[in-house]
Design goal:
60% of the residues lie in helices and 0% in strands. By secondary structure, it is mainly α. The longest helix has 16 residues, at 32-47. The protein is globular and about 40 Å long. The two termini are 19 Å apart.
């Protein structure tokens, strides 16, 4: 899931978020810093424009796979993906 141009930017942050979440799976909510990091990443996904169709699809898949549809940031994330301008 590397972004074009290396492991920088949007795709790398998404990958880090996924890694952090899976490291605490089955352990309740995990440490508060993990929850804070998770929350911060979702806020950033609403603000950082995707650079490609692949990045946009990766975000949609992540939201779907991790039950992110109910998060309060999801409408803003979807608007960000739609307005990304990567076409």
């Amino acid at each position: 899931m590397a972004a074009s141009g290396g492991q920088h930017g949007f795709a790398a942050r998404l990958h880090q978020l996924y890694r952090l979440r899976t490291s605490f799976e089955g352990c309740g909510d995990g440490p508060t810093y993990a929850t804070a990091h998770d929350d911060h990443c979702f806020v950033m996904l609403a603000k950082i424009a995707p650079r490609s169709k692949e990045e946009s699809l990766a975000v949609l898949e992540y939201i779907e796979e991790h039950d992110g549809a109910d998060r309060k940031e999801t409408p803003a994330i979807l608007r960000n993906l739609a307005a990304g301008g990567w076409a």
